[in-house]
């Protein structure tokens, strides 16, 4: 099961997997790329230039440090990037194909860099010159952005960063400057003046004694909203909802923290109830059947357990495989 597809499904229940694939590879309204924290994301094609422009400075510094550690010179990196771009001139290529081509022209120090699976593509992804293309035989491919998407408009960094603030607060507000800083790897020193410059668009609010920022246009809707039904939701591993805020006290009791944020950077799929994490779940597949093992942190009433089973049934309809539930 694709974590990104489940993340979209749990927020927009009318979506089908073919809708998502079409938006990615036919209509190209969504771009698959390494973005926040240099991890894989699906981004609106409309916002792609803003994300690239806003995130590139910090990521470029990071990459320069990596190359300096290896002793690779800028000219060598440029040559590798040119090789990859030339190779993509005739259409999508797999990551392994691109690495093999780059190795042929690389010196000893660059070959050290190219032993990493993402090495040949990451600098170009950071520059916004390539993105993920349609999968081929179970392998990912990459494509040139100038061939895959319409001509990208130029955007200055101030407006690009403001776009990220709007998207972040629109999805995760109320949130703090520190939350935004952690989310997009921008220093608090840079983020705070950015928030100050957007006071006409954002407003500071207090929720349960905690201060945070949200979009002004969302404030009245949030104030008038009510939660009529307690409905559990299944969020996939690494879901953006549980990554967005620097502190997690509003999401989970500290004693359960390590059951979600596990070793080696793994973040478990979770059961969400009333905005809080109440358990974790793991799919177990055998042949054509799938079972979700659900581990609730505390005893929940039958109505909530029934709701989880309905969620699993709906997820099964989405992925095309009947899904049962076992409560551990």
Explain this structure.
With 328 residues, this protein is of the alpha+beta class. It folds into three domains: 146 residues, Orthogonal Bundle (Arc Repressor Mutant, subunit A); 68 residues, Winged helix-like DNA-binding domain superfamily/Winged helix DNA-binding domain (Arc Repressor Mutant, subunit A, Orthogonal Bundle), CATH 1.10.10.10; 95 residues, no CATH class. The protein contains 15 helices and twelve strands. The strands form four sheets. The protein has a five-stranded mixed beta sheet with strand order 8-9-10-11-12. A hairpin with a 2-residue loop joins strand 9 and strand 10. The longest helix is centred in the N-terminal third of the chain and has 23 residues. It is globular, with a radius of gyration of 22 Å.
CATH superfamily of the largest domain: Winged helix-like DNA-binding domain superfamily/Winged helix DNA-binding domain
The secondary-structure class comes to: alpha+beta
How are the strands of the biggest sheet laid out side by side?
8-9-10-11-12
Number of spatially distinct domains = 3
What's this entry about, in short?
This protein is an alpha+beta fold and 328 residues long. It has helices spanning 3-11, 17-25, 48-70, 74-87, 95-105, 108-113, 122-126, 145-148, 157-172, 177-184, 188-196, 216-224, 240-243, 257-260, 302-319, and strands at 30-34, 40-44, 93-94, 130-136, 139-144, 202-207, 210-215, 233-235, 270-273, 276-286, 289-296, 323-327. It is 45% helix and 21% strand.
